[in-house]
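Thread: "does anyone have the structure for this chain?"

Original post by V.I.:
We have the sequence but no experimental structure in hand. Need at least a predicted one for the grant figures.
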Amino acid sequence: MSEVSEVSPEESAGPDALADAAPRPSELDRKINRLFSGAVVRKDLVKAVKGNAIVPSYVLEYLLGQYAASDDEATIQVGIDTVRKILADHYVHRNQSELVKSTIRERGRHRIIDKVTATLNEKDDVYQAEFANLGIKGVLVESATIKAHPKLLVGGVWCICDIEYFHSADPRVVPWILGSIKPIQLSNFDIEGYLAARGEFTTDEWIDLLVQSIGFNPELLGRRAKLIQLVRLIPFVERNYNLVELGPKGTGKSHIFSEFSPHGMLISGGEVTVPKLFVNNANGRIGLVGYWDVVAFDEFAGKKKRTDRALVDIMKNYMANKSFSRGVETLGAEASMVFVGNTSHTVPYMLKHSDLFDELPESYHDSAYLDRLHHYIPGWEVDIIRGEMFSDGYGFVVDYIAEVLKSMRSQDYSDRYQQHFSLSADISTRDRDGIHKTFSGLMKILYPHGEAAPEEIEEILRFAIEGRKRVKDQILRIDSTMADVKFGYLDRSGSWHPVSTLEEDEYPAYYRRESSDAVDEPRADAAESSRYDGAPNERAQVLEAPLFEGHREFQENQRGISFGTLLGPYLRGAGQITIVDPYIRQFHQARNLMELIEEIASAKDSADEVNVKLITSESNDGEDKVRRQLEFLLKVQQGAAAAGINLDVSFSNTIHDRSIVTDTGWKVLLGRGLDIFQYVTGDAFDLATRLQEYRQVKAFGVTYIRDNE
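Reply from O.Q.:
Generated one for you, tokens below.
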């Protein structure tokens, strides 16, 4: 057996070798800067300038966009210093408000950055402003200012203001005078330039640019995970879009709606009242839906939360008809509604015992309300936010992309799929509306220039259908009078393409109510199924079932899959196994190989020996990477030997296909090789570190071929 030569730890590159390197613009970053000069900023700069200033990211990026929108390191550093000085001189910290007041008094005039809210004083017939951090109120505001910036009246706006001080002998006169006010948002932009520049990017590049604009590193996200992030933007680009996202804590559900855009308002679900949200009958003042593009309800989940039934009824009417009635008057608005909340149970638990809306307050756990939701984001598929997930690449300054999205709200892209596909006739008007609005939103975000290939259109159509299907399938659990629907679409040849949700494929035994009584029984059709759900508790059943021959596809983010269920039954009893995988180079790839060795070891008799031949390719990223690759393979080889598994490694730089062949007559073709799992933290207290079944997978296919000879 060939030996992998040993490499000492001193010779290998340290694990933190790249961590200390300054971020270098990638090819994509250089392209972004060339085509969107002045409209993009390096996303890690926000942390560099924020310090202890409690301001939204879009405020900081507005300033960075003014002074640090460049890929020149010297210019960036000067810009950072300038922004830091502006914040130091003008941002008002609450614990320093008295010092700032004194500065205004002594100088007579001083510029500040603060959140400003205006109210109408009916008694004196004047508008008055209140400054959140400075702690002053009653400051007179001109009517023209209110007309130009009506959001001052509802929720407040971050502004750059000049405040003057003039003391009067009259105690009723407020000494503070508003000299000037400028809301922190883009004043103008070139939409035609934006559309033209989009045509210079591939779809993958454009998606990565948008993901970086949100603040995440696209290299750590799969295609489906990126689309889930981008669906969160649809309420900003689509009028009257109703979105819900429920999932575990810490996945960034509310971040977009609090930090990303000056046109969105995030409020606590418990703070909502009819006057605040819709209209105050006492004075006729319109609420939040009349002024904001997006109203998002944070911490919306909670079964025991008290809710106003009148509010729920008005909200249902608004979500369906884009209007609301108070008294004799009917009023309309365009605000999209977003509901985000935490779940306290796993997906299979909710499917077995209740439904995926189980966490909602009782008044909202109602089929009529839920049927008005256009899309359900599966928050359980989103990773808990970790430090390495944040991007140091270039993305749009958020107030720039916020204005782009706002400018496209009036456009309708919902029919752009119809020259290639048609929806099932089974789909109701409300289901169709939900699919259309999600599809239109994603088209405007991904293909604003209107150019998309049929397969690209099909991708987002399927995604839109899945999100609405997730809503409808859960409603069917709650209200049995609702008619079941076959979700899918037809292509131009008339071929039918059904659409399923990921959790439907993962947990088929729990997904349908009618099968809940038999969830503990073996699936009779396990061998013939076109998809394998891979639930951990079914491993024994898979081992006993006739081995499947044919092809299977697995969706990105799917869980419940392991080498034990995917490959174990086909390797059982083999004395010679040949693995062909050109990419056993990095640590996680070597770890995957070691976990396959563990599976072989656990299945064989301890008195038997198994010969495993690995054919892989040598790393082409320099000598240091080659040394590390050899070190990893040596450790796997040594570990395998302890279990009576002889690992022989050979290198070939001409291989491409991935496969496993056994001397028992099985050949398994692996589309991605052994590299099927998404990023795993390595945290000893994370189940995904120990058990493959709890990891999310990348999209991949596998084909099982039996050689009967």
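V.I.: this helps a lot. Confidence is low (pLDDT under 50) at residues 5-22, 515-543.
O.Q.: and The two ends are 28 Å apart (CA to CA).
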